[in-house]
Amino acid sequence: MPGAPPAVPGMFPSMFPFGTPQFGTLPLMPAQAMTQQATRHARRVYVGGLPPMANEQTIATFFSRVMSAIGGNSAGPGDAVVNVYINHEKKFAFVEMRTVEEASNAMALDGIMFEGVSVRVRRPTDYNPSLAAALGPSQPSPHLNLGAVGLTPGLDIVDSSIGGAEGPDRIFVGGLPYYFTEAQIRELLESFGPLRGFDLVKDRDTGNSKGYGFCVYQDPAVTDIACAALNGLKMGDKTLTVRRATASSGQAKPDQEIILAQAQQHIAFQKMVLQAGGTPLPGVGLVSGLVAENPTKVVCLTEVVTADELRDDEEYEEILEDMREEGGKFGPLLKVVIPRPDPTEEGIPGVGKVFLEYADTEGSAKAKAALNGRRFGGNIVTAVYYPEEKFSSGDYE
Description:
Elements: E1 22-23, E2 26-27, H1 31-43, E3 44-48, H2 56-70, E4 81-87, E5 92-97, H3 100-106, E6 113-114, E7 117-118, E8 120-122, H4 129-132, E9 171-174, H5 182-189, E10 195-202, E11 209-217, H6 223-230, E12 234-235, E13 238-239, E14 241-244, H7 256-275, E15 298-302, H8 307-311, H9 313-327, E16 333-337, E17 354-358, H10 361-371, E18 375-376, E19 379-380, E20 382-386, H11 388-392
Antiparallel strand pairs: 1-2, 3-5, 3-8, 4-5, 6-7, 9-11, 9-14, 10-11, 12-13, 15-17, 15-20, 16-17, 18-19
């Protein structure tokens, strides 16, 4: 245009990668690069609990070989891992795969032994399930040969109509004390009804329990009642996490209030039997340290936020407002507390937790039932009652 200063030679080329196609006088970002950026959240997996000597190269080599061994390389020959970012201090890494499908296949590797350590494989916090659904499979292929790397392929169920690893009524039971026997755990679960299948996950080398397992009830109607009653219960020095292993598809969502009431009645009845000196239902009297949660007006949520998210003032305010809005759906909400990390101190109690205080236990019960097991940023939320006296005194440990 008349009067416009001449273009500075070399300005635009320096802002873009070499060899990018030109449109008119302006270069364009390659379509492949934009696609890689858009799918990165669905192509990465979080790997936690790494051994001390792990590095980018050993992690990339290990997971590429394992993916090949189980038949998870959907993109063909070659290494499935294209990039690794590792945090040595916190012993976790983000492993980026070639494709969305390969990342989903890698999710089946949770608990695999790496350099003598059982590592956790999860979705990263930026994983967006709704966006990922349009990019490729979100679940591992059912044809993976997990036995080739010493992993349990899934629940061995006589009736295949239950669905195995993909069955909507399969229950995940986590937080089990390592010293509890398989018989004790089975008896506890069977206090709600006969089991069709039960699988306690064990270490391949030692045969010891890894502290979690899966089960399926003969009567699918028992599934949600058992989850609501057992989740958050104290077993010895552990707290149970019990939820559906996979989300139901195409089924009407059960009424949470009815389920919660049935679960509380189940627990109350067993406590009455024990107090009367009678014979408890199978499993309950045999498992030492089993204590039902007493409902309080305060609900504590974990696996919702990270310390890094809380450091930014604007992001903290947005999270606080989101929690007020979401928590207010279940009853009159008196207070929301989200402890923040202090840059001048370490070990601030309660960082990573969200506390919701309600006007009555009816609201807290609805919130606990609705929020527990919900997926948030790729993580599964755990909701438990929190002692009111500790909360009122500012003790968030």
